[in-house]
Amino acid sequence: MSRIPPQTSSRHPLRRCLPAVFSLIVALMPSACSTVRKSNTLMPEAGDSGIRLQIFLDGNGFGPGVVDGRNGEFTRKALELYGQSHGLSPSFEPDTRYIRPYTVYTVTDSDVGTLGTMAESPQELAKQEKLPYVRLSELIGERFHTTEAFLQELNAGVDLNRIPAGTVLRVPNIRNPFSFKQFPSRYPAAAGAGGGERRVVVDTQSRMLRVLDSDRLIAAFPITPGSTEHPAPLGSWRVVGAVPWPWYRYDEGVLKRGERTDVFYHLPPGPNSPVGILWAGLNRPGVGIHGTSSPETIGRAGSHGCIRLANWDVATLHT
């Protein structure tokens, strides 16, 4: 059994990945192209060992999905891909004893002041200045890469949406908490030509997005790659532009039939935008890689032909 020491370097292999987004190649592949394989990997059960493993994977660029301590599909896939990226045996088990599974977070005035409301209809949403968080549990859950339900489990007896600033909450001790306020409003200039060897491979069957630098796997994240009605297009595509805090064109014709119509609404940016905090468009109109307002549904609920990630995974790609 191999033991994996903690990562000590502060330089993440994805550093400044998407500023060079014009050189990214996106390959969408069916299951035959997947490198994920079944194995006898030793997996912890739910509890502290499970949360430590997810924190380890999440902090090393191999997203397990939501961090909730459960032995789920994406935790297993992330572990296998992490092992492959480091040339490890399929039976390895990372040594996560050094990881403290939980920490505390003090709710701030800014957290409470950030909350807003969301209209019901697209007509009314289009009149809003932004699409904000509407619940404190939503904001804190996304910040610590977890679900509102698990956050409530960790803080039993606390009404998470009726607490004042200064309240101390128990949260997963992840390495890089997500803060939408720190996500940039624009990208810096593209990196040099060295980024041209970086590729994104989307496996539509395993529902994992892999980032490769030349032939070296450096990161992987769970995704929703389209749906039965609107599958993500197979083939090789180029990312032609990345827009932080995108406006979203709501068109029922596109959503229901894949056809643009003259009846649509422009929904403003915000963490609760249907496309999250980032839109990276491909050289196929209307198709892109983007965030989401519902991270707990990644890999489960379908999208409309696009590749959807949790906002915190999109932020990892950027930073």
Q: How many extended strands?
A: 13
Oligomer: single chain
Major beta-sheet overview:
9 strands, mixed
- Number of helical segments? 8
Mean pLDDT figure: 80
Low-confidence stretches: 1-13, 15-24, 31-46, 189-195
Radius of gyration: 19 Å
Shape: flat
Tell me the series of helices and strands, N- to C-terminal.
EHHEHHHHEEEEEEEHEEEEH
Could you tell me the strand content as a percent range?
Answer: 15-25%
Determine the N-to-C terminus distance.
Answer: 33 Å
Helical content stands at: 10-25%
> Which sequence of strands runs across the widest sheet?
6-5-4-1-8-11-12-13-7
Structural class: alpha+beta
Describe it.
- By secondary structure, this protein is α+β, with helices and mostly antiparallel strands.
- The protein has eight helices and 13 strands.
- It has helices at 48-59, 73-85, 109-114, 122-125, 136-143, 148-154, 252-257, 311-318, and strands spanning 25-29, 102-106, 168-172, 198-203, 208-213, 216-222, 224-225, 235-244, 248-250, 265-267, 278-282, 288-290, 307-308.
- α5 packs across α6.
- The two termini are 33 Å apart.
- Mean pLDDT is 80; it is low at 1-13, 15-24, 31-46 and 189-195.
